[in-house]
Predict the structure.
Amino acid sequence: MKYITLLLLGSFGIWAATPPAVVVHSAKDLSAATAKLAAKKSRFAGEDLERYPHHYTMLAERDATGSSEVHDHEADIFFVLSGEATLLTGGNLVNPHMTKPGEIRGTSIRGGERRQVGAGDVIQIAAGIPHQLLVTSGKPFSYYVVKVTGQ
């Protein structure tokens, strides 16, 4: 888990106009931040961290399955901090609707490939790939997200 901490760039707090060049989040800081998110007692809680020219970072906590989604122009990289889930990728969104330009969400995915993921795993999802995290209700799943926006 310590190797993940060294890879994490960003800063807890509000997005800054000029983010720091390097920030290291300790495992202790990440644990405390996810505990605060979990205390919100919602299916999904997230905290935006930093915005850089070609990527931005977030911290997320789920305790239930969320919507399926496709990002036309953003790749996702998840660093799983704690918990277990099933990652469903590919296939087609069920009941798709645009939530903002380049962002489509649905209620589930028809078809696709299932993979079990857990603490310590790193997940990379290219732009344009449908994906959904299937989380057992009441079993928290926390992850650090890097959204790669490209050019």
Q: What stands out?
A: The helical segments are 2-7, 27-38.
